[in-house]
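re: that complex we talked abt at group meeting.

here r the seqs, copy pasted straight from the sheet so there may be weird spacing, ignore it
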Amino acid sequence: MSNSLDAYLILSAILFSIGTFGFLARRNAISMLMSIELMLNAVNLAIVAFGAFVPDLAGDAAVIALMVMAVAAAEATVGLAIVIAIFRNRRTPLVDEYDSLRR
Amino acid sequence: MAIPDTIPVLGVPWSDFLFVVFAFFMIVAALLVVVLRDIIRAGLAMIVSFGALAGLYVLLGAPFIAGAQVLVYIGAISVLILFAIMLTQSKAGPASLVFQTQAVPAAIAAVVLGFVLSLGILATDWGEVAEVIETATDELARLLFDEYVLAFEVVSVLLLAAVIGGVFLARHEEREQT
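got the structure back, here u go
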């Protein structure tokens, strides 16, 4: 089981779906950011799995996975800064209460 | 003392056993992240999920990626998220409603997405080999600083820009009384 690419890719697909659900369904902005991190992790798992089982991609996949990690760190920094800036103005982390454009 | 290839009683190879254990912990922790009411606990479950994923990276023969996963995700991003949770939590405790009104359509969409992705994965021939190809750390370093050095530098500039942007956005503005 641990020697088949399909098992890892399906695991990655399940993790990505969980992240999608969390991003669409949660009310808290930080929960949505955590779901995005789950989705990025799922993509990284797929990339590393490809690198481990497809000979042409062997070394390159690890480099790409490292790049994805760095971009995820940048995304988390800016995303959390935006959430904190909004929280300072609106006093709530719940995204469905950010409705000043709709009233 | 050498560890035998298979688990003594069950007769299952260690790698398969560890794969199942790590996969189980990763999926269960990820589910807890999206359903738990208390967001601090969701953040802690996220750390468990990242740790199990680091174990899967080791099984995939990429120990350096596993180390980077522990350093970057568990060490940096999780702590950043926990700090942000503590900065933005109101005294009233967790919100009474965890999910938006669109939670049920979101669940259906996520299940359909996972199903379609799995179908695509199983239907495609990826040209894979049946053996894990190890990525040696020195080989990875040679690739990173030789062939991909431009991408490496671009990512470092991006990180610098993100740090400056994050500080600028989260800065407490001393504004005049208006």
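couple things i noticed - The mean pLDDT of chain A is 89. The two ends of chain A are 54 Å apart (CA to CA).
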